[in-house]
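Lay summary. Proteins are chains of building blocks that fold into shapes, and those shapes determine what they do. In this project we predict the shape from the chain. Here is one chain we studied, written as its sequence of building blocks.
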Amino acid sequence: MLSEQSRLGREQLETGYLLKQIRDAGVKVFYYLTGDEAKLDSALDKMMASLTSFAAEMEREKARQRARDAAVRFNRAVQVQGIMAGGAV
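And here is the predicted shape, written in a compact code that computers can read:
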């Protein structure tokens, strides 16, 4: 039981393959936030799982960019404060 599919993985292709392996082993996967079962029985089930993985991977990329941008802003702010205080940076 998982909260959502992104807890299984956030790399689209690997997550889909991992979910397929789990399902092929006879294990059912449920998402407790929605109460849904992760199914791969039809083309539509597979497409929805793929789209969900795609969205999780996009969010991971955006989070990485936000963290990088925040670090750059922080470093610039520290440098400006050092210059304004007359210290060497």
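What the prediction tells us: The helical segments are 12-24, 43-84.
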